Amino acid sequence: MEIRGAAVLPARREDIELTTDDGLTLVGELALPAEKEPAATLVTLHPLPTHGGFMDSHIIRKAAARLPALADLAVLRFNTRGTTSPRGTSDGEFGDGISERSDVAAAMRFVADRALPAPWIVGWSFGTELALKYGREHQIAGTILLSPPLHRASSDEVAAWAGTQTPLVVIVPEFDDYLRPAEARERFASVPEAQLIAVDGGKHLWVGEKQTTRVLDEIVRAVNPSALPLPTEWHDA
Which key words are in the record (predicted)? Predict the structure, then answer.
């Protein structure tokens, strides 16, 4: 089977619920490698829910569908407060990136309770704002930002990542709608340790198998590089 599009590879998948410190229940899914323990964990934060972002936004859905099998990664995805997907609707209402602080904390408590290894926060668009604002509050192995718009994360919140010794990987598409590579280099200059990856031909929504593959490759390169190169075909046993 060629791995592309809606391909879903074998994994142990579990519908989960997260409980926030303000009493909300958030719905989500944990995907684990089918036959071994994960090498690391992706805690994914989806794009803006008021513009269609949710736990099934395609890069996050495809990471959960492919990376447990291809890269031995656990993938946690969930709907932030007030967000709906086929999995269900999380309690609460959109908090413009402020009350979602509790959503990030709930996800990280789940990771700790399950003793999931080496958690990396992977934020996409709005999810990068949550990662930048609140990721430093938790024990994480690193952070990956996909298409960061830097609308809600202040310059001070970005600069606070300097000197943390926590890897910060910033993946910026050439034709992003909000922040393109040249400006991103300026905006992240306050964090000299940040690794900025400019993707030629990339766009904010990473549509198409070529862009999807590039993003998943870069995630794995940061989190579990020994799994590269990722296979392009899956052979059932």
Answer: Hydrolase
